[in-house]
Amino acid sequence: MNSLTNALQPLTPRPDSDKPVRRDATDGRGLLDRLLNTPNLEQVVPRLRPDLLHGVIQKCGLEDCGELVALATPEQLARVFDLDLWRADKAGQDEQFDADRFGVWIEVLVEAGAVLAAQKLARMDADLVAAGLAQHAFVYDRAAVTPYETLDGELMTFYADAISVHDNGLTFDLGGYLLLAKRADSWEAITEVLMTLGTAQSDYFHQVMRRCVTLSNQGYEVDGLDDLLHQGNQARFDLEVGREGRREKQGYVTPAQARAFLQMSRELRLESDAKPPANALVRAYFRAIEEMTTPDAHSTTSSSGAAKLLAAEAEASSPPAQEDSAAVLEILHDAGIIPQTPRALLGGAEGNAQRRGYIQSRLEFTLYQNPEAYQARNEELAYLANALMAGCSIQGRPFTAQEVSEAAVAVCNLGLENWPPHWLPANATALPISFLMDHDLISVFQVGWRVLHDEVGMYAAKQLIEILAGMRCDDRELQRDLDALRIELAKRWRAGTPWQVRDALEVIATLDLLAWTVLLALIDECPSLHAGIGASQKSGALSANAADFEFISENRQIASVHKFMQSLSESLSR
């Protein structure tokens, strides 16, 4: 599965004392220069994992990566499309197909050569290509829309008149089809690649164009006898379902499943007599993973699977190719595209290890006593990280890979520290060091997530509501904004989603900038601890930088949150 928590072994630099000083790979231009100067790059790029290739594209910009894209295989590009052609309006929401981005991809491919672009597209799913093209053009069968004269001498122009409303001046006749542009961007590149497909890949060309004709259908007659999706909407829905199926096989969690799991965790009943049964969504996820029998060479699977794949490739490669592959991986490692070992796991930073002692010590014990159980816990951590990445946000934005790994472990540590004593085995008075050998981390995370939601997010929101209810300002406009915040926050608090007032919290910044920054971190979908809590005991300037936060992993941090909220009224009244 796609484990965001599996550690990566550091790469060993090639022993080359004569090599020149390298450009910094942390910026896009420097990274691209280093990659393009790698010998035998044409042999290395086709063996890169699609997620790594996508990382380079994100870092350097798609428009500048034409040379790398030209070297990628169609199979790689299809997987990169799954990552790159889908966008969500907000973190944790469902992703939608991005037609504009598809047009940019066509332009980049055509810049590398129309023939090459046609060859790569011809080996991709025709439904995907047609769905993308249909966002840029109406496609009609030329014979069906050409005016004709009946036997009675009447000129029939019905179809021509019907489509003329879409004619914006950009039309194209090709292979018996009439194309009318929906948008001007990428139009030249699209027509160029279609011309080349029509000549060099005729069967595939007609397959795509017939699908585009279907997708250009204006809909069904409204007679009340059906409730069918428009052809275009149905095609996008089918694309979404197909993509979700492919990503599930790689270990990803869909946004809908992730949101459902996180909400169920917020509603976990800690007072129940016994630990609830395993979560049905998680059971289904791991059952689907177990049922996979055909490994996917391009999927980002477990670390052991990836290691076997790289070993097999290295064995099949010549020594120079092995050396060049290692050089590319080193460059990606330097650029942060291959992430560093997550600090929250074994061997993490000293401060994190101390704050997350519950999970740290129990994972270590499990590793040495039962490696199979430890592997299962790692797989569960991977699921939790993916669930947070797909269904949650941090401070109104998506998690980074490093953040989501740390967040999953922090919440699990909080869950272990707050594990209900009545869920322990009979005669047990404390959580045994062997706890994780026979207890899954899914339920542990759920306990921590419930505590985090109740004792941080909901608690902070309730305290702020009470503070606002007692505040009186001479400035009428400011008082009106504070009252509006209180009303909206109370509404969202009752719904259990106080983080949805994030934008309205800005009025607090006029009273106390640091307090506002701290509240944004506390009243969040994933509450966190900003450095401003307890800052009065520290020397130096107070920082209102939103990036100065840490994930809440222990009750001591929650106690500091409660102390801050109890003193907030005085801070805002100054």
Low-confidence stretches: 1-26, 219-229, 292-318, 341-350, 536-541
Kindly report how far apart the N and C termini lie: 53 Å
What's the total helix number?
25
**What would you report as the Rg, rounded to the nearest angstrom?**
28 Å
Question: Total strand count, please?
Answer: 9
Strand content: under 5%
Structural class by secondary-structure content: mainly alpha
Mass-distribution shape: globular
Whole-number mean pLDDT: 79
Q: Kindly state the percentage of residues in helix.
A: 55-70%
Strand order of the largest sheet: 3-7-6
Topology summary:
Elements: H1 28-36, H2 41-44, H3 50-60, H4 66-71, H5 74-84, E1 86-87, E2 96-97, H6 99-111, H7 114-121, H8 126-134, E3 137-141, H9 142-145, E4 148-149, E5 155-156, H10 158-164, E6 171-174, E7 177-181, H11 187-200, H12 202-215, H13 231-249, H14 255-266, H15 280-291, H16 303-316, H17 319-334, H18 350-355, H19 357-369, H20 371-391, H21 401-417, H22 441-469, H23 476-495, H24 513-522, E8 528-530, E9 549-551, H25 555-572
Antiparallel strand pairs: 1-2, 3-7, 4-5, 6-7, 8-9
Q: What does the model show?
A:
This protein has 574 residues and is mainly α. Helix content is 55%, strand content 5%. It has helices spanning 28-36, 41-44, 50-60, 66-71, 74-84, 99-111, 114-121, 126-134, 142-145, 158-164, 187-200, 202-215, 231-249, 255-266, 280-291, 303-316, 319-334, 350-355, 357-369, 371-391, 401-417, 441-469, 476-495, 513-522, 555-572; strands at 86-87, 96-97, 137-141, 148-149, 155-156, 171-174, 177-181, 528-530, 549-551. A hairpin with an 8-residue loop joins strand 1 and strand 2 (96-97). Helix 6 packs across helix 11 (187-200).
